[in-house]
Amino acid sequence: MPDQELKKLLVQLHHELEHTDSVSGETLALVRELDADIHKLVAPTPRPEVFESVLERARLLKTRFAANHPVAERFMAQIMDSLAKLGI
Fold first, then answer.
1. CA-to-CA distance for 68 and 40, rounded, in angstroms?
2. SS3 of residue 10 by DSSP
3. Which one of 31, 60, 62, 71 is most buried, counting C-beta atoms within 10 A?
4. Percent of the chain with pLDDT over 90
5. Residues 52, 6, 77, 70: is their CA dihedral positive or negative?
6. Helix, strand, or coil here: 23?
7. Nearest of 42, 20, 50, 17 to residue 31 by alpha carbon
8. CA triplet 53, 42, 10: central angle to 5 degrees?
9. Cα separation of 64 and 72, whole Å?
10. Cα 22 from Cα 33, distance rounded (Å)
11. Is residue 3 scored above 80 in pLDDT?
12. Would you say 19 and 75 are in contact if contact means Cβ atoms under 8 Å apart?
């Protein structure tokens, strides 16, 4: 169930960012990388070597969103909580 929650949160994050003009291309690239890594983690054969990079990328994005994108920051906090529920 947490993996479906993660996918839902990622969709919501992407939707939020699509409606935000002030997100840099670099930040959008980090979100895409995070999305790809999370899909690797919730795949039938997860790739444990991705665990650390997912957490690092999630923390970085949450920090970037803190000042200017509070809704996106909230999604990142929820994504990090869901990752914790998966033991990551």
1. 29
2. helix
3. 31
4. 17
5. positive
6. coil
7. 17
8. 75
9. 10
10. 19
11. no
12. no
